[in-house]
Amino acid sequence: MIHNLHSKVTLQGGVQMPWFGLGVFQVEEGSELVEAVKSAIKHGYRSIDTAAIYGNESGVGQGIREALSENNLSREDLFITSKVWNSDLGYDETLAAYDTSLSKLGLDYLDLYLIHWPVAGKYKEAWRALETLYKEGRVKAIGVSNFQIHHLEDLFADAEIKPMVNQVEFHPYLTQKELLSFTREHGIQLEAWAPLMQGGLLSQPLLQAIAAKYGKSVPQIILRWDLQHGVITIPKSTKEHRIIENASVFDFELTQDEMNQIDDLNQNRRVGPDPDNFDF
């Protein structure tokens, strides 16, 4: 049961990951980033998600260090995720990329390391590197991002360890029902990026109506919908009041009818690239 901001799910391998966290996509290095990370941790967030390509791992690391000191927390209280970028996919390259991310973050280990995109012909060697990091105890959990069912099946053919997490674009206009079902069957935890469709759902009439019923905001309704689907979510914000608001989703519950109505909004519409057709 997801009771509060500290509620966790147990991943394959036994590591516990918070259901809710802060994403920092498109947040540039600087004081705004550092303050956002510190604010999230101060207000109870324990999971922070970044990536090499975001170019902000150093600022995230600074925010983490300052927050730990100011809130009397230890590194083990936090769950930190980063991702290997496409240009670093390959066995040796991925191992080196992990070390670079750790160095920028100023950390001894990551809780979760993901392959950012399924680059054809490259992700299997990168996965072998992640398996090595995991078996050596250098990372607590390993997974992928933006993998479709066929990518996962292809990975399974040679993998010793199944991905523990698949982080994908997931929101009411892209409900990914088949992928959600497939990952459940294989014990892979689905995680949502762009859960609020980068603000594209704020004026959606059904979501506005449900929000009015509960005295909540549209983002809160969407984030609650994620959680009730058993999907980890990492909304991005740099504003303290929004960071607090986003996490205020544990004091109400959507009905099954409301869940179904939101599911029915699906349009298979993406705001990000198509994992089957990207060129970077």
Automatic annotation (TrEMBL):
The record marks 83 as: Lowers pKa of active site Tyr. Keywords: Oxidoreductase. PROSITE patterns: ALDOKETO_REDUCTASE_1, ALDOKETO_REDUCTASE_2, ALDOKETO_REDUCTASE_3. GO terms for molecular function: oxidoreductase activity. Residues 31-266 form the NADP-dependent oxidoreductase domain. The active site is at 54 (proton donor). PANTHER family: 2,5-DIKETO-D-GLUCONIC ACID REDUCTASE. This is Glyoxal reductase. InterPro entries: AKR, AKR5G, Aldo/ket_reductase_CS, NAD(P)_OxRdtase_dom_sf, NADP_OxRdtase_dom. Substrate binds at residue 116. Pfam families: Aldo_ket_red. SUPFAM superfamilies: NAD(P)-linked oxidoreductase (SSF51430). Belongs to the aldo/keto reductase family.
